C-alpha cells in the first residue's frame, strides 16, 4: 500500500501544481499571441527578433538573481510574489500601445519568468525529496495542461478578435488570486538532522536565556531529508520546523530562514555541466517543434493551412500524457531507464519527421517527440537536486539558465539551416543533439543522498 504522508506535504504538492499550471497558462498566452503583440505595437519584422531574444536572455538573468535571493529568503517567498507580478505584467502588455511599453513589459516578463521557473523547480525538487517518490513529472504535467489551456484561450481570442487586454486581463484576474491562495501552502526544504542538532546546540550554548531559540533572519536553510520529530522537538515554533510538519509559507509568512547553519557544499559546474547540456539540448528540440512544426508541415510536407496547426497541438497533448504517467515509470524502473527511453523516443520522432513522405506521417513523428522529450527536463532538475543535495537551489538556478540557452539557440539554428540547406536536413541537427542525452544518462542515477530517507522507498513497501 502507499506510504502515508503528512498533510503539509500533500497540501504543498497540490499548491505547487497550481503554480505550475498558472505559469503554463500565462506563458502560453504570451508566446501564442506574438503576431497580435507585433501588430498592436507596430514592431517591425527586423526588430521583432530582438524583442523575442531579449525575453530568454533576461529570464536567464532572473534565474541568476534568484540564486542570490534564495540565500536570504525562502524560494516559496520568491514564488509567492513573482508569479502575481508575471500576471500583472502580462495584463500591462495587453493594455499598452507604445513601443517603450512593450520593451519595458517584455523585459519585466523575462526577468520575472526566470525567477518564477527557478523558484518553482527549487520547491519541486525539495518537495520530491521529502515525498520519497518521483513527483516532478506531475508538476510539469500541470504546466503542460496550463499551456494547453492558455493556447486554447489564445486561439479563442484570435478567432473572436478579442483585444489583447480583453484576453490578458481576465486571465490575470483569475490566476493571480489562485496563485496567491495556493501560496499559503507552499512547502520549503527541511533541515537535515545534523544541522538541526548543531543549531540546537549552538543556541543553547551561545544565546542568552531570554533569547535562546530566536530565529535568525537572512540565513539559508541547509538541505537534506525531513528531520524526525525527535530532532526538531527542541526548536521553537518560530523557526518553522516542528516534528516533520515542514517549513510552509503559512507557518512563517515573513520568509526568514531559521538560524540553522548551511551545510557546506559548492556547486561544481564541471559536475553540473552534463545536465546543463542535456537541458539545453532538450529545449533546442522543444523550440524546434514550437517554432517550426507548422511551417515544416505546410512547406515541406505540403499540408493544408488548417492541418499545419495540428502538430504542435499533438505535441502538447502527448507531452501532457507522457508527464502524467512518467512518475510511475521512474518509480518502477528508475530515472536513468526513463530518460534513456524518452531520448530514444524523441530521436525516433525527429527521424520520422525528417523522412516523412506526407503530413500524417509527420504528425506521427511529432507525437513520438512529445512522448519522448517530455520526461527529460523534469528529470534533469531532479538529478541536479540529487547531485547537490546541500546546495540544490544553487544547482537548479544555474541549470535553469540552460533552459533559456536552448530556447534562444534552437529556433534560429533550425531556421538558418533550413534556409541554407533544407528543412528536412535541419531536423537532423536537433535529433543528434537530443541523442547526446544518451551519453550523459548516467548523470540521472540516484546518488547516496537521494530523496527523503532514500532515493525511492523500497518497492516491497511502495507499490504505488
Summarize this structure as a short list of keywords or feature phrases.
Growth Hormone, Chain: A; 2 domains; mainly alpha; 464 residues; disordered C terminus; two-stranded antiparallel ribbon; globular; 17 helices
Walk me through the structure.
- It is a single chain.
- The chain is mainly alpha-helical.
- The protein is built from 17 helices and two strands.
- It has a two-stranded antiparallel ribbon.
- Helix 3 (48-69) crosses helix 5, helix 5 (99-131) packs across helix 15 and helix 6 packs antiparallel against helix 11 (310-333).
- The chain is globular, with a radius of gyration of 23 Å.
Instruction: Indicate the mean pLDDT.
Output: 83
Molecular shape:
globular
Radius of gyration: 23 Å
Helical percentage: 55-70%
- Structural class of the helix and strand makeup? mainly alpha
Q: By CATH's scheme, which homologous superfamily of the largest domain applies?
A: MFS general substrate transporter like domains
Total individual domains: 2
Query: Total helix count?
Result: 17
Distance between the termini: 7 Å
Order of strands across the main sheet: 1-2
Strand percentage, roughly? under 5%
Number of strands: 2
The CATH architecture designation of the largest domain is Up-down Bundle
Task: Map the helices and strands.
Layout: H1 7-31, H2 34-41, H3 48-69, H4 75-95, H5 99-131, H6 136-159, H7 164-182, E1 187-188, H8 193-206, H9 229-232, E2 247-248, H10 269-300, H11 310-333, H12 335-355, H13 359-373, H14 376-387, H15 392-420, H16 423-426, H17 428-435
Antiparallel strand pairs: 1-2
Helix pairs in contact: 1-4, 1-5, 1-6, 1-7, 3-5, 3-15, 4-5, 4-7, 5-15, 6-11, 6-14, 10-11, 10-13, 10-14, 10-15, 10-17, 11-12, 11-13, 12-13, 12-17, 14-15
Amino acid at each position: 500500500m502507499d506510504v502515508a504522508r503528512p498533510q503539509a506535504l500533500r497540501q504543498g504538492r497540490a499548491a505547487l501544481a497550481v503554480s505550475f499550471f498558472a505559469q503554463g497558462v500565462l506563458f502560453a498566452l504570451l508566446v501564442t499571441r506574438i503576431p497580435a503583440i507585433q501588430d498592436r505595437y507596430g514592431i517591425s519584422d527586423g526588430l521583432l527578433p530582438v524583442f523575442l531574444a531579449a525575453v530568454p536572455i533576461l529570464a536567464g538573468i532572473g534565474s541568476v538573481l534568484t540564486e542570490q535571493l534564495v540565500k536570504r529568503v525562502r524560494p516559496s517567498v520568491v514564488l509567492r510574489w513573482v508569479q502575481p507580478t508575471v500576471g500583472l505584467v502580462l495584463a500591462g502588455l495587453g493594455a499598452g500601445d507604445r513601443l517603450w511599453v512593450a520593451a519595458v513589459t517584455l523585459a519585466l516578463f523575462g526577468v520575472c519568468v526566470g525567477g518564477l521557473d527557478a523558484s518553482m523547480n527549487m520547491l519541486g525538487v525539495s518537495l520530491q525529496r521529502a515525498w520519497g517518490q518521483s513527483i516532478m513529472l506531475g508538476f510539469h504535467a500541470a504546466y503542460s495542461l496550463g499551456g494547453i489551456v492558455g493556447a486554447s484561450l489564445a486561439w479563442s481570442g484570435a478567432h473572436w478578435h478579442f483585444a489583447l487586454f480583453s484576453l490578458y486581463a481576465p486571465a490575470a484576474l483569475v490566476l493571480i488570486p489562485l496563485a496567491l491562495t495556493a501560496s499559503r501552502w507552499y512547502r520549503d526544504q527541511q533541515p537535515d538532522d545534523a544541522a538541526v542538532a548543531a543549531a540546537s546546540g549552538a543556541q543553547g550554548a551561545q544565546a542568552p536565556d531570554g533569547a535562546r531559540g530566536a530565529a535568525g533572519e537572512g540565513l539559508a536553510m541547509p538541505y537534506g531529508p525531513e528531520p524526525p520529530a525527535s530532532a526538531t522537538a527542541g526548536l521553537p515554533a518560530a523557526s518553522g520546523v516542528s516534528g516533520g510538519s515542514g517549513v510552509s509559507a503559512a507557518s512563517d509568512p515573513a520568509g526568514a530562514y531559521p538560524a540553522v547553519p548551511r551545510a557546506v557544499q559548492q556547486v561544481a559546474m564541471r559536475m553540473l555541466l552534463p545536465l546543463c547540456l542535456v537541458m539545453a539540448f532538450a529545449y533546442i528540440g522543444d523550440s524546434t517543434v514550437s517554432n517550426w512544426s507548422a511551417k515544416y508541415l505546410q512547406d515541406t510536407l505540403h499540408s493544408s493551412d488548417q492541418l499545419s496547426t495540428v502538430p504542435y497541438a499533438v505535441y502538447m497533448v502527448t507531452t501532457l500524457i507522457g508527464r502524467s504517467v512518467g512518475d510511475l515509470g521512474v518509480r518502477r524502473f528508475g530515472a536513468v531507464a526513463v530518460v534513456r527511453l524518452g531520448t530514444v523516443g524523441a530521436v525516433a520522432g525527429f527521424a520520422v519527421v525528417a523522412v516523412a513522405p506526407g503530413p500524417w506521417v509527420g504528425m506521427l513523428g511529432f507525437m513520438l517527440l512529445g512522448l519522448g522529450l517530455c520526461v527529460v527536463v523534469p528529470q534533469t532538475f531532479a538529478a541536479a537536486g540529487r547531485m547537490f543535495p546541500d546546495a540544490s537551489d544553487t544547482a537548479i538556478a544555474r541549470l535553469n539558465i540552460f533552459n533559456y540557452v536552448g530556447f534562444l539557440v534552437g529556433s534560429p539554428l533550425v531556421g538558418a539551416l533550413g534556409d541554407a540547406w533544407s528543412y528536412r536536413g535541419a531536423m537532423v541537427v536537433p535529433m543528434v543533439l537530443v541523442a547526446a542525452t544518451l551519453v550523459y544518462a548516467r548523470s540521472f542515477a540516484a546518488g547516496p543522498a537521494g530523496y527523503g530517507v532514500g532515493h525511492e522507498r523500497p518497492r516491497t513497501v511502495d507499490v504505488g
